[in-house]
Amino acid sequence: MSYPFYLGESLVATAASHDLTAFSNLVERNFSVIINTHAQSATVKKFRLAGLVSLITRAVYRAGGNPDRAFDLSMDCYEEIGKLRIDERDKLASVLQTFCHAAFELIPKTSFRPPNLLQRFLQELEQDKEQLSVETVARKLNVSTSYLCRVIKVATGRTPSEYIRLAKLSQARSLLATTTVTNAAMESGFSKVSAFIELFRKHYGETPGIYKRRLMCGGPSKSGD
């Protein structure tokens, strides 16, 4: 299973949809990726878990949850995580899920609303990634590019361009099982293979060539895939 790294920010849309099961599952997927990344130290993993707690807090706040209460819950979660070793996976998962459920309860219960712009944007990322651009997505969503950029940036802290690059990166990574590094980059919409290699190394901790060789040798995936 390939893991698109924009899923962390997808917590915002999932929280807004009032779907606790989907929210909890998404938190679990993020947790698994962090814990299963072999190239990173225990300290780095702890930092990434703290980042995940921040993402959950922001998602709850964006969905209408009480920000002060969400902050208090996150502080408790940080403290509990700090007491545990990174190899105490089950305990860490339990702490994170307890926080996830408690934070989710802060979201006001309202009737179903149609997908907002952030949700619709994230849905577009699942389509033809090779042809994706901020301009084409904005046109499909019937908004201006400036408005789309402003809304996505305010809601998640990332720009639409960043999301699109990461969506393409995820697709290219999944293609490495069946094609060359160059073909994976080109088929996923990267104009330069060097840019793909650098982005891959930055997010996965290794080059696509090394990742592909590990796949061919049956080695473990660094992101729990």
3D architecture notes:
With 225 residues, the protein is mainly alpha-helical. It has 2 domains: 5-104, no CATH class; 117-216, Orthogonal Bundle (Arc Repressor Mutant, subunit A). 65% of the residues lie in helices and 0% in strands. It is built from 12 helices and no strands. It has helices at 11-16, 20-35, 42-62, 67-83, 89-104, 117-124, 134-140, 145-156, 160-175, 181-187, 193-204, 208-216. Helix 3 packs parallel to helix 5, helix 4 packs antiparallel against helix 5 (89-104) and helix 9 (160-175) crosses helix 10 (181-187). The longest helix is centred in the first third of the chain and has 21 residues, at 42-62. The N and C termini lie close together (5 Å).
Give keywords.
2 domains; Arc Repressor Mutant, subunit A; disordered C terminus; mainly alpha; 225 residues
β-strand percent reads under 5%
| Helix content percent band | 55-70%
User: Shape from CA axes?
Assistant: flat
Number of strands: 0
| Distance between the ends | 5 Å
Multimeric organization: single chain
> Strand-and-helix sequence, N→C?
HHHHHHHHHHHH
Mean pLDDT: 82
Number of helices: 12
Radius of gyration from the CA trace? Answer: 18 Å
Helix-strand makeup class: mainly alpha
**Residue ranges: pLDDT <50 for 5 or more in a row?**
1-6, 220-225
